[in-house]
Design a protein that fits this description.
This protein folds into two domains: about 90 residues; about 120 residues, no CATH class. The protein contains five helices and twelve strands. With about 240 residues, the chain is of the alpha+beta class. Strand 7 and strand 8 form a beta hairpin. It is elongated and about 65 Å long. The strands form two sheets. The protein has a six-stranded antiparallel β-sheet. Strands 5, 6, 7, 8, 9 and 10 form a six-stranded antiparallel β-sheet that branches.
């Protein structure tokens, strides 16, 4: 076997192992492509200088992504064991760069994800308090979103005493003030999610979300039919 053919074989084994590992980490994925950029010496030592993956219609911890491209560099793995049939494992945290898009449909499907729902409940509870409406955040349900250029509308249903549930809705812009902090601008209370105009909520102007030290957002774009995010993250073993 020539060095070139050996390198191709090792890369294929690694790409297959990474694909299998990734599929075990997500709930579902329609298309997944993995490209490995490494030479024999790196691979046999367990170091991967660069790995790139592309996925379509992927669901991770309840979050639905239409498309995502991830680039990871300097990855430490147990590749020598993988070549002997063992499952792939990460040896240390790795930084990744990701570009993701969510269609309006996928965004709505993600609103009940464990990572997002508590944030949305807390935010809408703050909204209701600013409007002097006291309610238990746990009673909020039927979350929905609507996208427009540079605008996101969120709505939910809340119980009322002795009557049908009431819709609460708001429209806002979302801006980055630092790589790991988002703030709201031009927040409006709406009579319903499709209302053209609303009541300004000055108390919520500048309301912020801290994304944590392991997340850096480079760009966030809200379009009429999709939400696009580009950022840097960390994946832990």
């Amino acid at each position: 076997m020539t060095p070139q053919s050996q390198s191709g074989l090792i890369s294929k084994v690694l790409a297959s192992a990474v694909t299998f590992w990734l599929k075990s980490q997500v709930e579902s994925v329609e298309q997944l492509t993995v490209d490995v950029n490494a030479g024999d010496r790196n691979l046999l030592s367990g170091r991967i200088p660069e790995l790139r993956l592309q996925a379509h219609q992927i669901v991770y911890q309840g979050i639905h992504l239409t498309d995502i491209t991830i680039t990871a560099r300097d990855i430490a793995t147990n590749l020598p064991q993988v070549l002997r049939g063992k499952p792939l494992k990460l040896k240390e945290a790795i930084p990744i760069t990701a570009q993701a898009s969510l269609s309006a449909q996928d965004l709505n499907a993600s609103l009940s994800a464990p990572l997002l729902e508590p944030v949305i409940r807390g935010f809408l509870a703050d909204l209701l308090r600013s409007a002097e409406i006291e309610t238990d955040p746990a009673t909020l349900h039927s979350f929905q979103s609507h996208l427009a250029p540079d605008q996101l509308t969120l709505s939910a249903q809340i119980p009322t005493s002795g009557g049908p549930d009431q819709e609460v809705a708001l429209r806002t812009q979302i801006h980055l003030i630092s790589p790991n902090q988002l703030v709201l601008n031009q927040v409006q209370w709406l009579t319903h999610a499709r209302a053209k105009r609303g009541l300004p909520l000055t108390d919520l102007e500048g309301y912020g979300f801290d994304l944590g030290p392991d997340t850096e957002i480079v760009d966030l774009a809200i379009e009429s039919e999709q939400l696009k995010v580009e950022g840097n993250f960390k994946v832990y073993p």
